[in-house]
Specification:
The structure holds 2 protein chains of 2 kinds.
Chain A lengths: L3 E9 L5 H4 L9 H4 L8 H6 L5 E4 L11 H9 L4 E3 L4 H9 L4 E3 L12 E5 L4 E4 L5 E3 L5 H8 L3 H11 L5
Parallel strand pairs in A: 1-2, 2-3, 3-4
Antiparallel strand pairs in A: 1-5, 5-6, 6-7
Chain B lengths: L4 H9 L10 E5 L2 E5 L2 H11 L11 E4 L9 H17 L4 E2 L6 H7 L8 E4 L13 E4 L2 H10 L1 E5 L3 E7 L8 H12 L8 E5 L1 H5 L2 H10 L7 E4 L3 H9 L18 E6 L6 E3 L7 E3 L10 E4 L7 H11 L9 E4 L4 H9 L2 H8 L2 E2 L20 E4 L15 E4 L2 H10 L10
Parallel strand pairs in B: 2-3, 2-5, 3-4, 5-6, 8-9, 8-11, 9-10, 14-15, 14-17, 15-16, 17-18
Antiparallel strand pairs in B: 1-7, 12-13
Classes of the chains: A alpha/beta, B alpha/beta.
């Protein structure tokens, strides 16, 4: 079964770093305040993003620190997927690890406007703009990476490993 | 067909004769490191998912360097918990508050050795590429997996090469080279790729300088950022007790996806302007930028050579009355050397504040925080909006020499005037 995500698009530019998704100045704030700090460089997003929305971004999305709170904050906001021109590699890997569907596609920012509806077919590296009918294919992901996301992330797989190997705690 | 450095290491670690870019491999890890942020979260993730013990306590390194010393009850609790856990796990390679920053301590303690595959819960883990190790940052879930299993999946990256030629001018150093590369080739020139820095100007760099450049490798997208192992690497490691270190580099017929030529001869001091690391200008084009704070520290630029270069400029001078200078050596060993050689006295005489060895203000979560509207010049690695405090503050990055000159003048200044 392929993972398909549909949602309303929020658009971001180039070089959106992980500090912006999990800023240190809000690290110890309660969630209700902290969630307003996520991607604080886009003021309307912080006020109006809804669970089920998705992100379309430019180059190098998620550059910077290895903080996994970047993708987990997006997940906790209910962001369904991130499609970008390209990704910072640790962020990309962390998205796979925490089972947040991601896809890199050159030119994707040109076929989406903010507020349009995106559909991502994760397993087939395909995005469609349901508002305009345009579609694009991204770099295919290897089956190994798709499996991690489909298993619910690397920690869900670790739990299975522990059961298989008889570890308990 | 010949292999690059990362291909050799990933082939060896995955028990294959050879690997090629884009191969998916499961590789055995030689060292797994976590600090007070990442180890804490990863340990909980590991034990919550069925693994009570790490796979091999000898191969785990734990360090407390981010919130040092603890600044509130929460960070004190985290440190307390970590101390209990490393005892329970029998992890001997534990470095508590005050030993230094992970990316300085691992090389000093002999964990970062040529040919090793090292992962850690910190993005600047690329630093150990300066010693010919394949080292990269990972998130806490991957760290939990690595601590439990001792192996991890990798896509074999392509390798690109930066061939450094020419000779650096006085007052210009390693940081300027890597900022110049970021400015000219963008923050994602090495995205998903391994870098090998080669050429006569790479060989001419000290180990401290090479570590600065490998450290910043992640800021231009790199997964790994290597220098070849040469006499200098071997001498550095031998002096710290690692024996039988061998030369290590790519095969002569290795395949590089791209080679970039960088002549460092006419390089001037470089500044990364807010709010991206690749927004780089030479110091001569900066104009009047007043600075409230100057920071000489972090895993990028707080080694002996960095302190010496900054002290040479600050000697006999005073920090500008409207600027604060914070100096934090990268490890206790460096602190001691700086004390013995009189550098700390020079900083104190100039009016600097000396902080506990650790990450300090770099990440905006431990002291030295910037207020709204304030500007800092810093030897650190990131100038993202809000990185060192308020999202309404401004961070410029530069070399230790540039930070020293700027602290004296109270605005971003060209260090070559002081030589």
């Amino acid at each position: 079964m392929s993972i398909v995500v549909t949602g309303k698009v929020w658009k971001f530019g180039d070089n959106i770093n992980t500090d912006y998704m999990a800023p240190s100045f809000a690290a110890e704030a309660p969630w209700e305040d902290r969630k307003k700090s996520i991607l604080h460089i886009h003021k309307i997003f912080t006020e109006e993003a809804q669970p089920g929305d998705v992100i379309v971004a430019g180059k190098n999305f998620g550059c910077g620190s290895s903080r996994e709170t970047a993708p987990t904050n997006l997940k906790r906001l209910g962001i369904g997927c991130v499609v970008a021109e390209s990704f910072g590699r640790i962020f990309f890997r962390n998205c796979i690890s925490v089972a947040l569907p991601v896809l890199a596609i050159k030119g994707v920012v040109d076929i989406f406007e903010e507020g349009e509806i995106l559909e991502l077919d994760f397993n087939h590296s395909l995005v469609r703009n349901l508002s305009t009918g345009k579609e694009m294919k991204g770099n295919p992901l290897t089956q190994d990476l798709i499996n991690i996301v489909q298993s619910g992330g690397i920690l869900a797989m670790l739990k299975l490993e522990s059961i298989k190997s008889g570890h308990t705690s | 067909m010949g292999l690059t450095m990362v291909e050799k290491i990933l082939a060896r670690a995955s028990q294959r004769d050879t690997v090629s870019p884009n191969d998916f491999v499961t590789a055995d890890l030689d060292v797994v490191m976590g600090h007070d942020l990442s180890f804490y979260a990863a340990y909980r993730a590991m034990t919550n998912n069925g693994f009570e013990y790490v796979w091999d306590p000898e191969k785990i390194v734990v360090i407390i360097d981010h919130f040092v010393p603890a600044m509130n009850v929460r960070s004190a609790r985290v440190h307390q918990q970590i101390r209990e856990w490393v005892k329970k796990q029998n992890i001997k390679n534990f470095y508590d508050c005050g030993v230094g920053i992970c990316h300085q301590v691992l090389p000093e303690a002999g964990h970062a050795l040529p040919g090793r595959l090292i992962v850690a819960g910190d993005s600047h883990t690329t630093t150990y590429g300066a010693f010919g190790a394949a080292s990269c940052g990972i998130g806490v879930s991957d760290l939990a997996w690595s601590m439990a299993k001792g192996s991890l999946w990798f896509m074999v990256p392509e390798t690109i090469r930066f061939n450094l030629t020419g000779k650096l001018a006085q007052g210009v150093s390693a940081k300027d080279i890597v900022l110049k590369i970021a400015g000219d080739y963008t923050a994602e020139v090495a995205q998903y790729k391994a870098i090998e820095f080669s050429g006569p100007a790479a060989k001419a760099l000290s180990m401290d300088g090479r570590m600065t450049i490998s450290n910043m490798g992640v800021e231009i997208g790199a997964k790994f950022a290597f220098f070849e192992v040469d006499e200098k690497t071997i001498e550095f490691l031998n002096r710290r007790g690692s024996e039988k270190v061998e030369f290590f580099g790519p095969d002569p017929d290795a395949t590089f996806a791209n080679t970039y030529q960088v002549d460092v001869s006419n390089l001037e001091p470089q500044i990364a302007c807010p709010h991206n690391v690749d927004n780089v200008k030479p110091v001569s084009e900066i104009g009047e930028v007043y600075v409230n704070q100057a920071f000489l520290g972090s895993c990028t630029n707080a080694r002996m050579e960095d302190l010496e270069r900054a002290a040479a400029i600050l000697k006999g001078k005073r920090v500008h009355p409207e600027t604060r200078l914070i100096v934090i050596p990268a490890s206790r060993k460096i602190y001691q050397k700086a004390a013995d050689s009189g550098l700390l006295q020079i900083f104190l005489d100039a009016g600097a504040m000396l902080g506990t060895t650790g990450c300090g203000p770099c990440g905006g979560s431990h002291l030295g925080i910037l207020a709204p509207g304030e500007t800092a010049i810093s030897t650190t690695n990131r100038n993202f909006k809000g990185r060192m405090g308020s999202p309404e503050s401004f961070v410029y990055l530069g070399s230790p020499e540039t930070i020293a000159a700027s602290a004296i003048e109270g605005k971003i200044a060209d260090p070559r005037r002081y030589l």
